[in-house]
Design goal:
- This protein has a six-stranded parallel sheet with strand order 7-6-5-8-9-10. Strands 1-2 form a two-stranded antiparallel ribbon. It has a two-stranded antiparallel sheet with strand order 3-4.
- 30% of the residues lie in helices and 26% in strands.
- By secondary structure, it is an alpha/beta fold.
- The chain starts with a helix and ends with a strand.
- It is built from seven helices and ten strands.
- Strand 1 and strand 2 form a beta hairpin.
- Bound molecules: zinc ion.
- Zinc ion (ZN) binds next to loops.
């Protein structure tokens, strides 16, 4: 099967193969009960996903999760991101479910960045961003800060490179009523003993980030559940 897929990729091309796959999935999962705003598929249902399976989580066509669909709706309906005006956007840890959608807008000068991910355009340490002050009109960074040891420095860097009057969405998962903080938990092995989104070597609770948000009024904070 792997060999067949590899041959198909070479002969047909990855993008065309992806289009064909999605067309097939749209037909297989077609229904009127659900709608995915990321790929505009009409579905019978979303499929279960997660270590602890969440029902109605994954779009079988574009693989978007609940948080991707929510963010896409928020960006398209509640922000000025797609108003047609030229803007420069930084997308940290670019999700493949959202990145291509944003890049379709040719008036957005889009830059994706990550410390490790090969699909990002540039390598970036968000505690030491290699761009001058007031560079970006929009910053989007989802489910990253909870994994950064010095998240306060990362927040100050976002503030520095964001133009005055512009905005950022910094989304972090909130999975408990109280903050779990243990600065000694750093290595992947230690972190594996905790849930993916609540483990951290830094503060993941809402209090500090809301405080920083008020101080740095350009930053808009969003918190979310783990999904
Ligand atoms: Zn979809």
């Amino acid at each position: 099967m792997k060999i067949l897929k590899s041959v198909a990729k070479r002969v047909i091309g990855y993008d065309r193969l992806l289009q064909l796959r999605r067309a097939g999935k749209r037909w297989i999962h077609f229904g009127l009960a659900r709608f995915c705003p990321c790929c505009n598929a009409r579905l019978r249902r979303f499929t279960p996903f997660g270590l602890v399976k969440r029902q109605e989580a994954l779009c079988p066509v574009c693989w978007s999760l609940e948080r991707h669909r929510l963010m896409w709706l928020y960006m398209t309906q509640k922000t000025n991101l797609f108003d047609g005006n030229q803007k420069r956007m930084l997308h940290v840890a670019p999700e493949p479910e959202l990145s291509p959608l944003i890049q379709k807008a040719d008036y957005i000068n889009y830059l994706s960045a990550d410390l490790f991910a090969p699909n990002a355009m540039v390598k970036m340490d968000i505690t030491d961003i290699q761009y001058p002050d007031n560079t970006f009109d929009v910053i989007y960074c989802s489910h990253v800060l909870e994994h950064v040891q010095d998240d306060r420095k990362a927040m100050s860097e976002f503030y520095r490179v964001l133009k005055p009057g512009c905005w950022a969405i910094l989304q972090v998962p909130i999975t408990a009523d109280t903050t779990f903080e243990d600065p000694t938990v750093i290595s992947p092995k230690e972190r594996s003993g905790c849930s993916d989104n609540t483990i951290t070597s830094v503060d993941t609770g809402p209090t500090i980030r809301i405080g920083l948000w008020r101080q740095a009024s350009r930053l808009r904070l969003m918190v979310s559940c783990a999904s």
